[in-house]
């Protein structure tokens, strides 16, 4: 009785311990389990621990006492050890003794078999009842290890197989050579049996990689005839399934075949797939070396394989040198610098980081428990990983743990300012990579100051093989060299995205890859970057000149002589200047002004008084623009061939009455009647809170109903506050750029506005909060102060303007409160087009109006714009008030701030 009870307790204990050990990785440590297929330290730990297991089991297997020859557990142990020795490269058992690391984690096939063996064979081995009785101590160690780190799951096995397939696809390896453990010229001694080949083919089929699937399955069929480890019938059935799916998808996507297809349908005869051509190879041979977005992947494959697609001319501009003039704190001796590409420049600097710094970075990164599809930080936060990354782990330090190391190097090397405290460490195990990508994400409306301007990749280690950083559009790749940094600008100086710097990371073939990434933002570099005026600056200046000339209908001859709106500026223009302005007019569809500027350039050259440009060059551009103009207005002419699709046609045929009226008002031709002016008055507002002004504020009606109600407040803000906000704008300024939907490039459109601006929020500084409170006191509208609205500071340089517009989006902006921070010597008025009057900017004043009626409808009489600044600068700061809830008494005869019983907040 006692003996039976004892056996029952032992059996129950064994079953419970087995269940506990097999589920411990997915229950207790499920939140922090390792993903062995992507993070190198995790795979290293698994390899080291498995070596310890193999040593123990090998010694036990050599003896017959613990493992009787005919016992079942001996067969399980033998099968596990055979798989271990076949996939680690050890030829003899004695080779294992004294080793601490097998190196299996460094090679794709070895790592795949390591993960598969741990997920499948080891788990089944320790679940055997005899294993607990025979290897109790070892089993407890295994259970404890995987309790801490988690068992390898099916997901690890799946990812490891997919990474092997990725390596094969990118490097165009043959399945037969991979199965023999051959990578390029490296023999890894890790081979694959028919079972493994079958699993590879099945994994490829699940991801619609038909060429790889059929290649692996045909190989599995051949191997199964020799090793008898896989059913030939099962393999042939899967080959037929893969053939069916390929042919079905081939018909559906015949016009747009992916690289995973063959060039034709596969016949249902043995080995027919071997006689067909891969679309991948056909596309690569046809498009390799050609630049452009559509060819990025083809060049990426070639660059990863060691090819270079730079032309001889491009290579002739490359060179390396020893730099002695860098900051003395950067290094003791001179640094070796090398240009990898020119225009745009990609520079590699060698030995910029010391070995101690590199070891500390990698050591700290390994301590962080990085996990699947996430970004782990030192604070334990987890963020979704970027969609561009594939099979890599990303770690960030937002607390600036190693910030000084990188910030100092960046500043000393490039002169750029790095105020971001985040460092991104990326680690790549076998097959780790990402496809070509750009550094900015295109949006319909993008603030260039929020995007990365420069990119630094610090290489923290040498990679045994693979892992290059490829630039498909530049036709070159850079090898990761320990201690070096690769640096380039991802934007042009004007804020336009440089798409030619799209780059990808090639799959790691052998070893590991560790890099540290630093991205620098444009908004932090405006005062630090050392570059002169760019093409965008020149175009903006030319547009400013022609905009002033076109708006005020000025004579070109006077402008050329330096006389602008009756003011002698003392600055003259030559024929080349007129020629450039004329060409720029054509580029923005200002046809008639463009013809006039080109005609004046011809006049200056023809008279022989100006030799800054050749007559033939100007004449050709003038004729081309003249033909476009004539074809737009008279398409029946023979030279036009009946073409009415000229890009200038709409500009010429369409008359914009509002724009013409705005130009007329900028010339001083207002339409406010004398009767309307007689009803206007000014007064001293005494109900403003005393903390804002000791004396009462002078207020003035500029317009009254039935047209827009616009009130002007004089001298309401001090010079000190205005200077603070203007300095804030200089430090945080940016321009407005738009994204070309076809090319994805950023560009500046000068037609809607030509300004530089910045946003300030009440919680940024006390001055912005004060301005918000001031607007609240004057208008009676409540303003959200915490996490609330921004205030837009805008600078209009000469030629700076704003096209006519209405401030209210549907149901949004209730009112506008606009400060003026400067007087304008000439120009810069704010014309209210429908109401027929101009607001002259005066320093320290503000103008206020409602954009909506009390019933929420738009008040179209508040349409307004900004006249081009002729001389001087115009500073304005705008605040729009938007509402969340409005309860009002409808009274069409009045529109006062006190009438709106509302809960409001302002939007920048």
Automatic annotation (TrEMBL):
Domain Fe2OG dioxygenase: 785-892
Keyword Oxidoreductase listed: yes
InterPro entries: Oxoglu/Fe-dep_dioxygenase_dom, P4HA-like, Pro_4_hyd_alph, Pro_4_hyd_alph_FE2OG_OXY
PROSITE patterns with a match to the protein in the record: FE2OG_OXY
Cellular component terms (Gene Ontology): endoplasmic reticulum
Pfam families for this protein: 2OG-FeII_Oxy_3 (PF13640)
Organism superkingdom: Eukaryota
Required cofactor names: L-ascorbate
SMART domains: P4Hc
Entry keywords, A to Z: Dioxygenase, Iron, Metal-binding, Oxidoreductase, Vitamin C
Single GO term (MF): procollagen-proline 4-dioxygenase activity
Stated name of the protein: Fe2OG dioxygenase domain-containing protein
